[in-house]
Amino acid sequence: MQMFQSATLKLTAWYLAILMTISLTFSVVIYQLNFREISFRLENLQHSLMESGISILPDSTQSQIFSYGPNSPLTIQSNQAAGQMTLSLFYINIVIFVAGGLGSYFLARRTLRPIEESHEAQSRFTSDASHELRTPLAAMKAELEVSLRDSHLSQQESRELLESNLEEVNKLIQLTQMLLQLSRLDHDKLERTSVDVVQLLNEKLSLYKADKKRFDIVARKKAVINANEPAISELIGILIENALKYSPKGSKINIRIFMKRLMVGFEIRNSGTPIPEDKLPKLFDRFYRADTSRTNSSENGYGLGLSIAKKIVDIHHGDLQVSSNEEGTTFTFCLPIIRTNQP
What we know:
This protein is α+β, with helices and mostly antiparallel strands. Helices cover 60% and strands 13% of the residues.
């Protein structure tokens, strides 16, 4: 994205400017300290030789060597040392500039990457939500416009129009409720109590009397976890609805509740068309549908159910996995148990 590329370059420039300011400041300080040290040592050497009375050279030559002035040997030596030191510091700063530029760009990218990903996810979410809201609204508008143009609209046709619009309104209500639920899961802290997953499963299955014979259940007598009961009930309901929606009518749905170390596991498997492996990681993305051929089906949802399920599991510090092959598609979640010695 061009906006983030520009922001990356600006942040890199700022990082590099700060780094070079520090480097140049230290270079000036080091230069001043070293130059003073060199001058001090040369002066001390001069004074030591003059005070010792050692004279291995003629007086005129000795006077010339230890004299002060722009052309004196001591001044020339000091200037040469200063020039060498300046050149060394210049090369050091060039290296710092190049290495610092690369490092600053890397840090800038790393700093902005989470923001960029969040921005992209938010933009995608807003775009998808707008699309989902626009579709039923457009259908309602079209029906109303056509009906208003018909001066001979019968009472029966008016009733059918109202029923159709009511169906679209219910879809909008369902979508907004799911979006609100996702928003709450993003920000709310859920109250946790002792929850029996087996009991919740039985309560949920009692709502599917027409499909009761389809469920093949293997479960413990009790499996207690520390969780928010409404959230876990919603999680189980989402996985059951998903299995019913994407499996052949009348086919078996296998559910298993098991123990895994310090976790309670819940596994639900349904037969049907396998999901391609490259699409599996995207199943928990908001508004994502693996089966695009069913986009216009009345059975099709908004692609939010599995996102809510994943969010519920994450909030409870659990793990949600999916696998799919010719035998069927399996969703498995594991959540921490309550130990028997806990109050």
